[in-house]
Amino acid sequence: MAYDQFSTPSSTALYSEAFFASLTFAQVENILYPHIGLPTLVKEWRFCAETQASGRATLVLPNESVPPISALQPILQSMEQAYADGMRSVMIVYSDPILGPSENFYHFSKIRLFKLVNNHAGHVQSARELLRYIERQTLLPPSLLELFKSSRILAPIEGLWTSCVPLYKLWDFLDENWLEEDILNALSELCYLREHANSGLPGSPPSFLFFPTYFFTEASRLYKSHPKVLSTQLLDIRRRIHNTGVRKVAFIAHSSNHYAAYCQVQPQLVLEHGDSLHRAPSQDVLDILQWVFADLDDVYACPTQIVSGEIAHQGLGTGGEGSCALAALNFIELRLENGTRRWTGSKARYFRDTSLQELLVYHFTASSSPATLGECITECMEVESGLDSQVNSHSNLGFTGYNDYNLLSPLANHPIYNFLQAMSQLTPFNLPRMPATLPLVGNLVTQYIPQKLADVSVCPLLPALEIEAGIHRPSTPISSKKSRSPSLEIISPSRIRPAKRSRAKPLALSPSLLSISDSDIDVKPLRLSKNDKDQGQLTLSKLGLTTKKRATQTPCKKDHSPTVIDLTTPKSHPLDVKIKVEKRADRKLPPNTKSVSKAVSKNDIVRDIKPSQGDIRVGRTFASMEDGFRAVCEQQAELGHTWIISQTYRDSNGHVKKLTTRCNHYRKPQETHKVDIDPSEHRRSKSKRTDCKAHVNVTRVSSSTSWYISTAVLDHNHEREVHEEGTASHRPTTEERDIVSKLATSGRAKFSRSQISVVLANEGHALEPRQITNISNKARRQAKDEVSSHGGNFEAIIADLHAKAAEERGWNHRLKLDDNGTVVCLWWQSPKQFGLTKRFNDILINDNANNRNDAGYSLNIGIIIDNFGKSRNIWYALQAYEDAATHSWVFRCHLEVAGVPPTTLITDRGPGLISSAIRDLPLTDHVYCLFHLDENVTKNLRPRLGSEWPDFQRNFWRVYNAVSPEEFDRLWNELISRFPAAKEYLENELYPCREKWAWAWVSTKFTAGVRTNGRVEIENRVNKEFADPKTSIFQVYVRLNERTQGQAADDMIRVRDVSDKHQPCIAHAIN
């Protein structure tokens, strides 16, 4: 048998290729998915020659722990060679912090299943969240929602020529982080089809070209290659333009994880550029286009200049931080004049939901079309021989390229027409409420600037203004020649007023950001008029719109506060920069508030606010104060210095507004001595304080959540403190605190400090032992305080049991109080335990364990033996006393739930248990644990018998194994006569209860082969790992419930193993 055939999982197995290929959104909602463990799960592995054929070795079960892909990689890489060497399975040793190492043998096919589980985990989670979002937002009518639920998560969106987008990938629309290139190209193709359908000319070549992102990526790559070569796709585009002509050309460029739009309307020679980060256009875009479309002047006028069109700024506190893709798409759709609404950050969710809805509706429309996609389209052109024969001699070099929908024209039976009809019948979304002033960096007019401000430059992405006749001179646009740099026109208007937007003419200005020195400018807030308030200006705070004191460049996927800058006609100064801020109810701004902004150059503005090494400087911005402090510490740690928080400054509301962090060598060393000690006897101690002046101030931007470095002094007066190969200690981050806190208060196990340290190391973190201890203790105190807030441990348990009972039928609990209202005993069981109590009511094994909680309550566990001969916990009880009354109450709780008494009860010889069993379980055969019997005999008789003890042991067990009562009595009398020193104990303690322990009587009772309560002792050994005298009762309760779930999971594995032996295709039946 070939390796591929041997190692390929069965198509009927859970989590196989066929399973995921057929998995629908409806199934994803309720799927039980395996748990992917940490990289430390796999301790070691090796190949074995034996072929493992059991269900456990070949099938992955729901909720099974699966090794991560990083641990599977070396196994997968070596598996084929191992098969050639005669190996047929893999032995993997799992490292469990509670149960210790465990060996597991797996068939090669299960290793492949593990890989599939890892590969599709993100797909399943994305599909689940996508379905929930669609249902919550009501994006689809009921009929389409049912179609969506029955759709396969890996199925591609139908009706698209260029992009192949699986449905689960539409999860990208759910947040602001990023939109994949394939999804954006799918939206571009849908826009192309819709624009042509609206023209009313089916089958005719569309006059609008909307190139996918691959177009400019490929064109740019080929333009920079040597020699410059046009690919087949680019040649086809040239033929398309030559044969059919075009009216509008648009494309979206992808660069540095950001999208920017370009659009040209023929016959104008201007290429309009839209960038939601307000960045400058690519300097070589004109050269690339002129190279691609060379010699087409008779049918296509290639652009020779670029202007920046009006587009809203993403982020700046209004939302849309990661919506550059949809902003670029909207920029082009607006140029099509099809009634599209304008994109802004505050409306980002509306555009995401609309785009998601459109793709889904189009998918359902295309999938229900009786014709195939090839039958719904026709080619736009007829290839003319010799058209590009002179372009280059390398056009047949074998470029793979892409499929371009611009070469095709939809026919009358294309699904785009049914899609438009379906969309017209859907209720449109309501737009979020908008502020009166959009967060556009706009209303800017160049004017007279003094010589000392000659370095001022302005962002080019600004809405244009019309200036009165005789005042405005259009600025020079960006030329196609690289040697010609953009400039800023200097003009001196007497009066400037903004024009209507419909009459606006774009200004082409320098791409650098605004940079103004301190002494030349006043920053003043703009007073809000009554009309502004009436129009909703005061709702900006509800939308998260805040103010910065200087213009900064906003990253594509991060949150920054907005800035609206007006350069208007000065009154007292040639250049007044006014920042529009929102008027807040709890803070009144004085009319003439002034603040000074330090000069910030373009190099001081960072695109990504994530901390970067070696980049601490004035003007750098951060998303939070902690990010700023961590960036300083990481940069200084590389230089061998340790930094600490020196001081925090708070505003009137108690919020931190500035953080000062310093080198830990700051301050002057000061010696303190008692006056009655002679100076010659003073201790000459060393101090690390050297009065080091190195410090950094991290300041919060006013009325914002962003922070920036306002002061940075990085010169030290001492050598490095940490060795070059050492590690500097740091303040625990929020993520590290969360990891330690979750492990310290885990309900599954009790993690030691060393175990927590290992987990941190695997996650890429490192904390000192004292830091782990401090965080753990604090988390445990907070957990106890939370329990106390509910009234105490038992009150919290009762509240949780009531909540569980309301959610799931089968939870049972009983509470016993004394006359003072103190809890004497708490008994409970889960629905699974309730079912076991009803099914297996013949044998009950019972024992108590002490030192399992901080309140001193004994833990009482009831255990049965299931159909596999395995122990199963069927209830738990926490008892304040181990007397007969309490045991009797526990037994009555069991009888109330079970309905019938057990056939056999196996316990130790505790007096309370014996008397309660006689009173409450009179029909039950009570068997004493043989292990405890041997312990008691050893404890009481070994000191008395001395050297005779070994001989006595042999004869005692000979008596125990007597096969009949008569034989037992004969051997018993011989034992007493031979060892008279043991006679008193034997006749007073053991002989009266001989029917409960001797084999002559026990052999006639049903015990399932059990003679001891060792099953309970083993369970007590397990719960000792997660419960000790320091564990709260509530934590014990939580961890016992987790233990029950673990036993249920093991039972599912046993069921699968047995079923697999009789029904090999049981996996198909379950699926």
CATH superfamily of the largest domain: Adenoviral Proteinase, Chain A
Number of strands: 28
Number of helices: 31
| Radius of gyration over all CA atoms, rounded | 39 Å
CATH fold title of the largest domain: Adenoviral Proteinase, Chain
CATH domain class of the largest domain: Alpha Beta
Envelope shape? globular
Name the descriptors.
Adenoviral Proteinase, Chain; 6 domains; six-stranded mixed sheet; 1071 residues; alpha+beta; seven-stranded mixed sheet
Question: What is the secondary structure topology, with strand pairs?
Answer:
Blueprint: H1 3-7, H2 17-21, H3 25-30, E1 35-36, E2 42-48, H4 55-58, E3 65-66, H5 69-84, E4 89-96, E5 100-107, H6 108-137, H7 142-149, H8 181-199, E6 208-211, H9 213-224, H10 232-244, E7 248-254, E8 259-265, E9 270-274, H11 285-292, E10 305-308, H12 324-335, H13 348-367, E11 377-379, E12 408-410, H14 415-424, E13 478-479, E14 523-525, H15 530-534, E15 565-568, E16 576-579, E17 621-622, H16 625-638, E18 643-650, E19 656-663, E20 695-700, E21 707-713, H17 734-744, H18 753-762, H19 769-789, H20 793-807, E22 812-817, E23 823-829, H21 831-839, E24 843-849, E25 858-865, E26 871-879, H22 884-898, E27 904-907, H23 911-920, E28 925-928, H24 930-945, H25 949-960, H26 965-978, H27 983-990, H28 999-1002, H29 1014-1023, H30 1033-1062, H31 1066-1070
Parallel strand pairs: 1-3, 6-7, 9-10, 14-16, 24-27, 27-28
Antiparallel strand pairs: 2-4, 4-5, 7-8, 8-9, 10-13, 11-12, 15-16, 17-21, 18-19, 19-20, 20-21, 22-23, 23-26, 24-25, 25-26
Region (Disordered): 551-570, 672-691
